[in-house]
């Protein structure tokens, strides 16, 4: 049996996603799991002879576990990590092609392969921050603020996603664009933007796929810039998502390793954390291949 630590967010997932059932499925796959709730004191302590770590929760839970791993010293051994998605969006798991059904994801762990995860970093805030999904300004920090109080967190996952998209539609309709300058590996982009996102995953927020070709292990960040002139096109895409219609919305992405953002005073987000930024210049860069993620072989 492979010694495994099962880091679980007990507040994530629907009522039928019982950790006992997931642990039983993993046991049948040959994994001897020790349970840790990330909401319990001392959850970071685990046996050093463990062979695999599992983050069972949403994107926030995955970030919490990765933050713990990044805090380990170079003298401590590293561990492969896999994800059982139990959140609302599960953008990190989806980017790695992990099945959105938790039980299917658990059943597939044994056949997964090791893939690299890059980690992004931001300098220019009160302290250096890391990110897995992305950093950005514009409509998404506004969405995070409004959805926190405007969307019922107890709704089933699909209903919660739909309600979040409706809130996003309202924000996009009325959002005042930001004057932003982006320098990406020496190239400069300056305009009024509704959205400025520097992404390491394919999607952000309510599964809005903005960087179709993002590869979280290629050593590059994907920059998505949506100018004010694209407001109607973005609204059309959001409304299609709400109606369950197919609508491919793609905006030419820019890939880069080192990026500088010159922003006015505004709200920004780093992964799922939104903060008020006083304005100025932020430096963003990527560190390649920091962690090993067990996931399906890329197809």
CATH structural architecture of the largest domain = Sandwich
Class from helix and strand fractions: alpha+beta
CATH fold category name of the largest domain: Tumour Suppressor Smad4
**Assigned CATH class of the largest domain:** Mainly Beta
According to DSSP, the number of beta strands is 17
Percentage of residues in helical conformation: 25-40%
β-sheet strand percentage: 35-45%
The residue ranges in which pLDDT falls below 50 over 5 or more consecutive positions are none
Instruction: Please tell me the total number of domains.
Output: 2
| Mean model confidence by pLDDT | 92
Q: Which geometry do the CA atoms define?
A: globular
Oligomerization category of the chains in this entry: single chain
As a whole number of angstroms, the C-alpha radius of gyration is 19 Å
Written as H for each helix and E for each strand, in order along the chain, the element string is EHEEHEHHEEEHHEEEEEHEEEEE
Distance between the termini: 29 Å
| Helix count from the secondary structure assignment | 7
Specify the biggest β-sheet.
11 strands, antiparallel
Structure report:
This protein has 299 residues and is of the alpha+beta class. The chain has two domains: 2-111, Rossmann fold, CATH 3.40.50.10330; 121-288, Sandwich (Tumour Suppressor Smad4), CATH 2.60.200. The protein has helices at residues 19-28, 59-70, 91-95, 102-107, 139-150, 157-174, 231-243; strands spanning 2-8, 31-37, 52-57, 81-85, 113-123, 129-131, 134-138, 178-184, 187-199, 203-204, 208-209, 221-227, 254-256, 258-263, 266-270, 273-277, 280-295. A hairpin with a 5-residue loop joins β5 and β6. α5 (139-150) packs across α6 (157-174) and α6 (157-174) runs antiparallel to α7. The longest helix has 18 residues, at 157-174. The two termini are 29 Å apart.
